[in-house]
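User: We ran a pulldown and think these components assemble together. Before we commit to crystallization trials, I'd like a predicted model of the whole complex to look at. Sequences follow.
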Amino acid sequence: MKYSHFKLKLRAVVGVIVMFVLGLSANAQQISVSGVVKDAANGEPILGASILQKGTNKGIITNVDGAFTISVPSNATLVVKYLGYLTVEVPVVGKKTIVIQLKENSVALGEVVAIGYGVVKKNDATGSITAIKPDKMNKGLTSNAQDMIVGKIAGVSVITGGGTPGGSATIRIRGGSSLNASNDPLFVIDGLAMDNDGIQGVANPLSTINPNDIESFTVLKDASATAIYGSRASNGVIIITTKKGDKNGKLKISYDGNTSISKVNNSIKVLNGDQFRDIINTLYPGTDAKLAKSDSVTRSYLGKENTNWYDQIFQTAISHDHNLTAMGSWKKTPYRVSVGYTNTDGIVKTSNFERFIGSVNLSPSFLDDHLKVNLMAKGMLVRNRYADGGVVGAAMTMDPTQPVRSTDPKFNIYGGYFQWRAVNGTNFGINNPVATLNQKSDVSKAKDLILNADFDYKFHFLPDLRAHLNLGMETSEGTQTLYIDSLALSDSPYGRQGFQTKSKYNKSLSAYLQYAKEIGKHKFDVMGGYEWQHFYNQGNNEYQGLVKNVVSKTGDLVGYNYKNDLWKTENYLVSFFGRLNYSFDSKYLFTFTLRDDGSSRFRPENRWGLFPATAVAWKVNEEDFMKDNKVVSDLKVRLGYGVTGQQNIGYDYAYFPIYTTNIVGAFQPFDSTYYSTSRPDAYNKNLKWEVTTTYNAGLDFGFLNNRILGSIDLYRRTSNDLLNEVAVPALTNFKNRVISNIGVLENTGLEFTINAKAISTRDLTWEIGFNTAFNKNTVKQLISGQGADYWVETGGPFQGTTQVYHAGQPTYSFYVYKQKYDANGHVIETGALKDPANPSAGKYELSDAFENLNGDSVGGKPLINEKDKYYNHSINPDVTLGLSSKLIYKNFDFGFSLHASIGNYLYNSVQTGNYYVGRDGVAAIYSTGSICFINKPVSSLNNGFQGSDPNIYLSDYFVQNASFLRLDNVTVGYSFKNLFKVISSGRIYATVQNPFILTNYKGLDPEQYGDHVGIDNNIYPRPMITVFGLSLNF
Amino acid sequence: MKNNILYIVAFIVLSVFVSSCVDDLNVTPINPQKSQVFNQEEVFAKTYASFTLTGQEGPAGNSDIAGLDEGRFSVYRCLWNCMELSTDEAIWCWPDAEAIELNFNTWTTQSTSVNGMYSRLCFVITICNHFLEQTNGKTDAATIKERAEVRFLRALGYYYLMDMFGNVPFSEVVSTDAPKPILRAKLFEYVEKELLECQVDMYEPRTAPYYRVDKAAAWLLLSRLYLNAEVYTSVAASGTSAAVGGTPRWDDAAIYAKKVIDSGYVLNPSYRQLFMADNAGVIDQSTTNTAPQEIIFPIAADGIKTKSYGTSVFLIGSTHKTGMVNWGSKQNWAGNKARTSLIKKFFVINSSGTGINGFFSNGADLTTSIQPAIKDNRALFDKKSISTTVANSTPSLFSDGYQVIKFTNVRSDNGSILTIKTAGTAAAGTATYTNVTGIGSKSGIEAIFTISRDAGVYTVNVNGKGSGFIPTETITIKGTLLGGTSTANDLIITIQTVLTTTTSDIDFTDMDVPFMRVAEAYLTYAEAVLRGGTKVSGYEPLTAINALRSRASATAKATIDLQGVLDEKSREFYFEGQRRTDLIRYNQFGGATGVTWDWKGNVVGGTDFPAYFNLFPIPSTELNANPNLKQNPGY
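Assistant: Here's a predicted model for the assembly, 1669 residues in total across the polymer chains.
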């Protein structure tokens, strides 16, 4: 550690104050011990280190020369602490003079971080790497590992699913570099690169890990760091290292557990029974000429209840989670064993997630530590009962004047639940959501096993040379079983049952040789290796109805509409890779990596992709002119360049012609023979890698002896040959849309992270972390040869295109008509009557409702067509922000974290889907007496749309600003020691997760997840979760 | 020990290296549903199935086209919607975008109806091109026949593209090069050439396996092509007006129509049988339905093996709703109903304008009173069951207006799978029902009843039998209350299922769509001759028209004029997907004045819409994808 006059002064001031405070109590009659505290590395004295008599509050701080004098009993033990150094305990045993050496333990600087196929000291890293360790003090509810990194890392967006227990999250690093191809980062768990495809009940690779087993996350952001993973690294890499046993460690047992309570605190507002009766009475005031009946007949179908259907389907969900870990060393073999059990109820009644998870880790060494072996096995059993996703929508629209159950015997055929039925007993209308929940069971069971063996051999004759071998595999199997009762309206009269299975495995081998040598000021580290991976998936879907077998009269159930669909698919990846690290004088760092990847997903000519990367870094603070700087304790400049690829296109066989044979229900008869049919699949023989080139410039800095640490990164990432499924000209392929390499996407951004220990005293510490990221995402070019107007459709509500890619615009741009408003600011609705009281006044036409942006006309009338649409915002935020804080006072801790997103827009599809609130919108009348009432969101009622012209879906009115600030969690905790003799330490805490969000967005939740990026169909609320947790170390 | 471990490690490394080499990258599909080999029989079946089905799984799944709901956008359903909903025959009640835009003549370049039609027809052509490329040069007898039929199917695809979209992309191969457009008149020449060539190698009429087309299909399409030649070859083929400057081919139309009339296909004595569950005849030898003698090109459907939401289940489900006379399927979408203008083809509005003569006799039953009243057994409308008004004043209300019951999944022997729910009001104690509506009277049917009432439990007593029974002609169901209180409430009798069925399925229909049938040739012949074509063998237009009327038990006409032929065609072919083409040929569609119907142009009384609507627009997605194409004028 280097010293500076500034530091000395600062320490002197602090030291004097502390000495003054503490000195007052140091007056007992004991021996006086004098000593000096030094940096073990360079022998320089450390000022301001705290010396504490163990088990007491008595202590002192070292002075300018690192010296101290303290009066303690002669058998006392001194605890010596200094920020950034390992704490040591020194028994006095009668000595009067002691020299104490402290070793640097700067988490940020000295820490070894995982990189691809190896590790590097954090301050020797040349790429943009963020390593975080799960924070025990502020972790919120972490039934899934992804919850730990929400809002913590600049440029990493983690959007967790809604209230579905066991749901997955969408993780995006620097906004995603692909369009149609996967934008998920690559997950590497203990050296094994995982397959991102989930199976029933196992959403993504992170679900397979017990959060308590995680030692660290390393997020590799720029290509100079990720290119070693080549074809799968375009969206960043998340390396997870799990905890291992301790060599020479004694058996340590610890327990972590929590109980949580989830509650819905917002849902789409709808009318209650009284309000709904008012609406119907207003809309049906008189005589209905069409039915030749009085509206009073319609009104008579209103019920008398005030049923809150949300209350009927939502519950306050209680969950609990327990983890037990044992670690230590047995005959010099470190081991760690953990088991975990989670049982989570969902906020929708009947939904439940249950998981058993276990892991075993052995890390023996052989041959005098020349051969290090790490064996890991993780197993998981998951049972997930899903609630029908439609019930939230049904609860939103179900008539609030009706009861849940009725004693009216006409409902007996539905199991006594109220259901809409026609006069003649036919089923129709919205299904009673409570009946749906109780009459349907949809359960998945999955098992997952990961085995990994890691060998690291240091050659006996040449210790600088290491051979490394990793053999890994994951296998999992899931079955989802569906049973729908025959009383259920949806599948009357047979009911339905069936199952879907999916099983998969992936096998992996990687091996490399590494040679590291230091010659004077030159340090070399050369590595070269080979990797082989095989991914295999297969599945089967079987469904059938149930029919009472009346022939046998036994009541046996026989299948009806049996369906069976078995599929299999696989792909291989073969790679060669190498890396050279060179540093001179520990100041100038250079890295070069190269990977050659071959994927079975492309034809031989396009199969191999070469992915080079290089980076340089300059540790400015190591320079002579910086050595005496008092403020800046760390300064490193990084420049990187790298190329990565993307081959995760969702198809294994997309480049050659292939035929799909028909399955059940799709035979072509000729005479009385039914023939199988065979259809060529769409294919693209020119399919090739998506290639992403990244430039990154970064600055890492530390101030005030690294009490303030931070980094700034600037990047530009350009993806060429973007893979996307696009509409192709008719007659050119076997489908109207084909996966193709279509264009260029550029992401430019700035990331800033700062972490500070704002206060660090013996009793009070305050750590605060802030990060922000600006990202600009632009589609630069789409299929060359296409005109400037060319766009690629990406989505829409259930009718029409409202979202496209277009050169010059961000991805997922909304492409909509510009809405016109009347004098009162109300939306002019295309197709609506200008005056409902006077139909002869006509209807609003397209040109009344939408701006004629290109000014053309036909027959003197403004011509509104797709050329009048414009590009209006996108889901991509301009800025994201994250802030976390942790305050520790004595045994108490208090923390919170929040994150924000600014400038992101959503298409509010829930609003469009329920926009129609006229007479026919709130009551579906099938014929006399056959009526179903439909409740509506309050927001739709406010608009008063009359309905029926689908062009209204294309209006920019529904594109809404979805900026938000969300408080992710708030935690308070209390730590204790030596409880009941068996417990050496522990902590008890309470966390509130998702307590509030600030937003102007009109939909349910501005933080969107799921498949339809930017098109918000979500009606499933995120719950607020209160967690009570306990950690015990025995 | 040390060495052993080293050896083990070395062995593992080496063995895995050797076994896992770069050759692994050359994959072949392991999926049992996938094959890399061209299977001629299966791809040939697929060319037909491109009309029959919507994908590789029935009724839906693994669709042939992407981005649009599979069943709603089948070839036949798109075709039907474009040809019927845009005209004076049919109107759709639900707010589906694709139907609304056609209902009210407000379609745009972004309409899903237009996009679906275009994509489906292009898929038909593509799969045919693929088959023809793969079998090019094969000269065995079977392949020659298959290639001739596939050329016919491709010509049919191009025919409809020409009819609806005009100037479309053209290709005879599957190539990634964006195709160039072909002028409508040139496409006319191409379709004509293809049909004339392929018919040589096709089966003689009525000798092909059923569901495969023969020469008569080619002739019928040729006659239709020639009948519309003036429109298709018009200089205004860009779509502004119907037939300006086109070259009529009345003689050829008459010649080929007459060839069809004389081909051996004959009018089936029963019109109704053409649209019933057993209209394939050949599938179930027990049937008495003789419809196949009239149907030249059926689009197949089977309730188990050939399922699609886009063929007959659409025709039957969309035109029915619970409460109507049994149609043999649970599907009751209440979607398509008749426009008033269609009813006027059969009935005359009475003087008060509130109803229609012969239609309102109280309690009139369809078969016993309505048809005799107007003396035309093609008037297959339902009035009594659910209609509340007759005026079609609210398009979205299915019961406001008339229901078409032309299509049914009941067999000609009145057998059907049973899914009837019937109800009545019963006093406490015993309820007795006789002649429960709609139960098939075919013997050998066994059914289960569940009966619920007042939370009590009923025993079921059917003709003295328990819950499984074999109805004969008249069924008596007795429900006996065993417990619970009773009020005079609904007694619901649900017939859950029937075994030994006579149709295949409770939802999916067996009725084939009679896509091309010989009756069209009679109308084409009459019109062609009336428009100036030369009579063939002295056959009179009036004779042709009266052949159809006679089959319908309608009175013979004494004279016939052009408008009379058009009206007759509506009576014969309503709801069969031909109307739009006919109206354009008669200049009664886009740009026409003085011809109106209810809700034409989105006004209750009807208003005119512009001539450029005689062509649909090239979909905006296709224009976007293929820069060689030009949009039809006006859009």
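The longest helix of chain B spans residues 141-165. That may be worth checking against your pulldown data before setting up trials.

User: Thanks, that helps.
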